Queue: 2 jobs
Job 1
Amino acid sequence: MNSMRILAIVAMCGCLAGAAWGADVILNEYNAVGSSEFLNGGDSAADQDGGRASDSYFGRVQGNGGDWFELVVITDHLDMRGWYFDLFEGGSLDETLTLTDHAIWSDLRSGTIITVAEDVPSDISYNPAAGDWWINVQANNDADGLYIEASSFPVSSNNWQLRIRDAAGAVVFGPAGEGISPVSGISSTEVFRLEADPDDSITPYSNKYDDASDFSTFGAPNRWGVQNLRRLRTVELEPASITAIGPNGAELLVAGSVALIQWESEGAVDQVLVEFSFDGGASWMTVFPANVGNTGQYAWTVPPVDSEQCLIRVSSATQLSVYDTSDEPFTIVMPSSAD
């Protein structure tokens, strides 16, 4: 083999490695739940295992929020203006979405979460110093096209994959998704998620990509435990705190009634995540419908459980380390037991 041919092969291998290793941005999660299905099956009241599998943003809803996928920025001060998202379904390229030249894409900080959704309006309030690391942009045929091409797109359990290209057309990451990893497949009642802390070691072939049916986290760190993005996020945050006020212990609530969950917050807490546990904090579920904004209270329809080990937890949706729980367990009883 002559030296020129060797050099050509080495150069080609370098290009391939660059597309799959040390990527500037990676795929973090996508929704494969079918439009007529619920996460982990079942119906609106309970999943197939008797629980309430849900999304941290949408709650437990049919379709689990519709067509959406989520990215994490790995490289600090990244310029993604004019980048391309190639979406494959069933082994074929179905759609390419192009980011616009809007300034929001010109200086992205490492640790930023980007979601692209058909049904959720764009929100570019993005302010890492205030703890807001999330950019959501809406892409469908009727969208405004200010931040991403106005085109509807598919996300499904039919061997869906994503390839990311920069403005010059060079592959930055992917294709990644079902059939690449996990090879076992994703069903129409599951999501795809990265079950590891995102960094530049993640490739499309990582065995940390997996299917999941217990929880999804549109616009927030993944939860198989809690995904840690702190190593990526070098921006100094403004201080923030949350104090749960009630229920805070010893209360007796009746399933089906409406109880007021209340909290106080200080600093940069624009959006809070409200959750409950009926096993002393061993597992947590989001309230339904999901809380919106941060008003300091939430009218909670008490779920149909019978337990003396119930807790509520209120967290900053952008700084999961900022949270508070009930000081002591409270009790939920079924209506017949309250008579």
Note: The radius of gyration is 21 Å.
Job 2
Amino acid sequence: MQPLIDTFGRVHTNLRISVTDRCNIRCFYCMPAENVQFMERAALLTFEEIEHFVRVAVPLGLKQIRLTGGEPLVRKDLHVLVAKLAAIEGIEDIGLTTNGILLAEQALALHDAGLRRINVSLDALDPQKFEQITRRQGFEKVIAGIQAARDVGFDPVKVNAVAVRGLTEDEIVPFGHFARRTGVEIRFIEFMPLDADGAWQREKVLFADEIAAILEREIMPLIPRPGQDPHAPASEFMFADGVGHVGFISSVSRPFCMSCDRFRITADGKLRNCLFSLEETDIREMLRSGAEDSEIARAIRESIAAKNEGHEINTSRFIQPNRPMYSIGG
């Protein structure tokens, strides 16, 4: 069967599924501090609907899944969905991105269900800075969640740290040492224009090259890791002595759009061919109106075929999506 290919020759095999827009913290680069209007429960795709969509997409070439939110672990019984997806022939890999607050109590059930890779969002190792960014408490729970994930056998465990100029420079070196001490891979993510308050400015982006320079000056040189996935968003490195891995997601300074193999479905069932897409396809309506699988497959193909060349953050043509990150899915 013809793969999911766009007009630029990019083949899409990687689906990000948001299971909820709800979250138990309020990171400023993602959500408003207060009075967040969440989706009604009835608007969310059920686990059965998500499974149905994935079963339609697998024959089109889908191989990898990542579950996101909001905070996916606030969705009750998420391990049940993991087990459903892990049982689908053709799915080779399932990952999860979480803020880690509920991870310690769910890590074992998720691993037993078939989840194997965990990314934990943690932007600061200083508890006060953590509260400043998240506008909530919970630092110790995140650290416990990371340890629990490692204890039950998740490999790799990655920590995603959003880098913001004027705020997180002091976290760079501690994160480098954390990577060396724990074996967790730290991935620094350039601050992107997906905040709910629309306050993003290019001047606030702490660029990957600057972060790397600080790590090399304060710890030791970095060397590229061998065997990297050319479609992965992160450029991966290790310290010169081989102890400690770091990655850089340079969405602003070095966009990786031309190697992108990802598409997304939001918690309310809207298919998006790009994180920054301005258009969506209503899959939920198709699922609930009894559309044939062939119709859903055709909608997926049409969405991928319409994918733009790139997000255009660095041009005057860029338009920020009207959905913030928590509503799209990380």
Note: The first strand starts at residue 14 and ends at 18.
